[in-house]
Structure formats: structure tokens, C-alpha cells
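User: C-alpha cells for this one?
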Amino acid sequence: MESTLGLEIIEVVEQAAIASARWMGKGEKDMADQVAVEAMRERMNQIHMRGKIVIGEGERDDAPMLYIGEDVGICTRPDAAEYCNPEELLEIDIAVDPCEGTNLCAYGQPGSMAVLAISEKGGLFAAPDFYMKKLAAPPAAQGKVDITKSATENLKILAECLSRSIDELVVVVMKRERHNDLIKEIRDAGARVRLISDGDVSAAISCGFAGTNTHALMGIGAAPEGVISAAAMRCLGGHFQGQLIYDPAVVKTGLIGESKEANLARLKDMGITDPDKVYSADELASGETVLFAGCGITPGNLMEGVRFFHGGARTQSLVISNQSNTARFVDTIHLFDKPDYIAVK
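Assistant:
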């Protein structure tokens, strides 16, 4: 899968990032998202594969977004028999967030990315559009910290795993009312908190790399993005756990249904019989082959944002694979016209 799709999925996230970056700083988050979706769909439909979106924008008949259940790739076309050999057909599941951190892009803030994860059919958890309690940590803490423990307990374990004192740890938390008690506990334990407004995929993946000054992600964010984070962290050997949140009173947003009972019924209809189950990265991204790809829209901890110059643009992407056990940073210059110059740096 990696040898067949590796370069092409880089181009998918690059095209989405470039399209979205044209709207960076213009205050139009919906437009930044829409153009990223359109660019991502157009490039995916040029790939010789039979892909299905398992995490996207929701299941809709006439959705302008990449919706759950949408088929993508040349081999999903009505005339696919002319282009695709059934014996060599790649059937894959795809999780996408064409503009992760739409507000970050709209207001020119760091950390917005175009991201996706792929695996063979059935290899990604089809997360409902709920929220998820998340815990991400570096590879040294894999399987040692636990989402069922308190933040204080996990910080003590993390400090031991990293041979640091607790006051040397930095924990990323989304700035939300629901996290006020968590933030206080982390600070009382002695660690430092970096608050973010959006974009916890970047924060989770940063835990997998030394030198990012990010030692943990804690708190509640969107469940679909949790699966994408889990895919990357599984490939990196980092720690990631997620637990679905189905009670609207916990997240305090009004965005996940009218009642706890209705959400429990929806989970049951989806075949999720244990709504309180804690999922590991291996369960959220369970496929034999898992790939993650991301491209910076605005500058972030891991990647530069899109940099336009007259006649072109420069992007930086990250591709992580459990097939080759690699994390590749890809620097690309895109030539739109005949530029006056091409900068090396």
C-alpha cells in the first residue's frame, strides 16, 4: 500500500493545504474548509484505488463535503472496468480532515493542517461524530500512562518514563470550559499547560517526537480526529487512548445530540455495545497497514505552513507508515507558472 499510494497521498494533503492556505487570515473558516475538501476530493479521484471515507463530514446524500460512506478513487467510477484490474484492486478506508483547525487557518494562527489516515478495508474505527476523551504521550510512556488514571498520577508516571521532573513537563489542553478542573489539576501537580484553541491532532502527534516540547495531550476533543491521531501514534509507537463521550452535559457544547439517552441508542445502532470502552491506538487504527499524511497549512510544531511566492508555493508534509516504520518530512516546491526565482530556503 505504501509503495503504491505513498506519493499520491502526499499530493492529496498538499493540494488541500494549498487551497486552504489561500484563505489563511481572511476570517472565512467555512471557505477555507470547503476549498480544502474540493481539492482533496479532486486529487483522490485521480488515484487508482477503491476508497471509502469512513471518517469525514457526516453521512449526507448531497453533501458538499467529503461525507462518511463516500466512494473515492478511479476504481469507484461507473467505467472503472476500463481502468482497474480487479485482481490488483486496492480497497482502502480513509479518514480525512481537509482543514484541521479551520479557525486557526481563518485567523492566521499556528497549527492548522490538512490530514488523512488510510488503512485496508476495515482497518480504521468508524467513530461517530461525538467527542472523545484523549490521552497522548511519547513512546517511552506507551502502555504505562492510562486514561483511567488521574492527571496527577499520569504526570508522575510520565516524569519517570522521561527521566524528568514534573515541572519540566508540558501538557497541551484545549481551552474549553469543560477543562477548567483538568487544567487546575495539571498546574497543581507542578506541570505546565499549553492551551490551544483548536487543532489537537497536531498536539497529539507532537507527543510522538522528541524536541517538540510537548509531553502529553489531555482532555476532550472530537472523536473523528482522535482516530486520525491514533493512526499516526500507532505508526510512531507513541501512546494514544480514546474514550467516547456521549453525555452532552460533559462537553457543554450542544453539538452532540439532545440527550444522553439518544446518543446511547445511536451508539447501539452502530454496534458499539460498550459505550464506555477505552480504545487503544491499535484498536482505533487496527489495520495491518496504516499510513498517516499531513501537510501544514499554517506554521506548526511539526511542519511549516504553505509559503507562496510569485508563480508557485512551497509545502512541508509528514508521512508516517507502520509498513516501512518511517516518518518522512517532505519539502515540496509547486510550480504554477514560470516563477522569477525559486528559493532554496
